[in-house]
Write a structure and sequence with these properties.
The longest helix has 11 residues. This protein has one domain: Alpha-Beta Plaits (2-Layer Sandwich). It is of the alpha+beta class. The radius of gyration is 16 Å and the shape is globular. It has a four-stranded antiparallel sheet with strand order 2-3-1-4. It is 47% helix and 16% strand. 34% of the residues are buried. It contains eleven helices and four strands. Helix 4 packs antiparallel against helix 10. It starts with a helix and ends with a helix.
């Protein structure tokens, strides 16, 4: 893969409005902590359209990948309430977080993943209803994307470097 230091990664996770409103944030955080990922930043925020535009279009290129209409559905959904943004750190954190979260499409997510256990809407249904898919969490798609997303959502002074007991076993 790469040098050992390249294998210690940070990933952005955003507990979306449906996760906050359904009271699932604690369960979601618990799953990440349980595997040894370290929370190095966390906050509740109510981003504006500009922040979501930077996140989903400038970095994630959602409109380019899925179309402007899908981007707008997602934007409207994301603006329905506050979110919890987290920066998680650990050994190959980006793919590990993606594995825990499950497929972006809740209908296709395996049981045992966050989306497989707590979400169920299909893309087809959400598109027919002209609304975003409530799939509980956003997780960075790659280490390069994670670096951009973490920088967008957190300032340097909101991220903490500390040791935790899990590192004894994971690093």
């Amino acid at each position: 893969m790469g040098k050992e230091t390249d294998l210690i990664q940070r990933s952005l996770v955003v507990c979306k409005p449906d996760a906050v409103q359904r009271g699932l944030v604690g369960e979601i955080v618990h799953r990440f902590e349980r595997v040894g990922l370290k929370i190095v930043g966390m906050k509740m925020v109510m981003p504006d359209e500009k922040q979501y535009e930077a996140h989903y279009n400038d970095i994630g290129e959602l409109a380019k990948r899925a179309g402007e209409e899908i981007f707008r559905y997602n934007l409207d959904y994301m603006m329905t309430g506050p979110v919890i943004a987290m920066c998680l750190e650990g050994v190959e954190a980006v793919p590990l977080v993606r594995k825990i979260v499950g497929s972006t499409s809740p209908q296709e997510a395996d049981m045992g993943t966050i989306r497989g256990d707590y979400a169920h809407m299909s893309f087809g249904y959400s598109n027919a209803k002209k609304k975003g898919v409530p799939n509980l969490v956003h997780a960075s798609g790659s280490p390069a994307e994670a670096k951009k997303e973490v920088a967008l959502w957190f300032s340097d002074d909101e991220l903490y470097d500390y040791s935790d007991l899990n590192e004894k076993y994971t690093r």
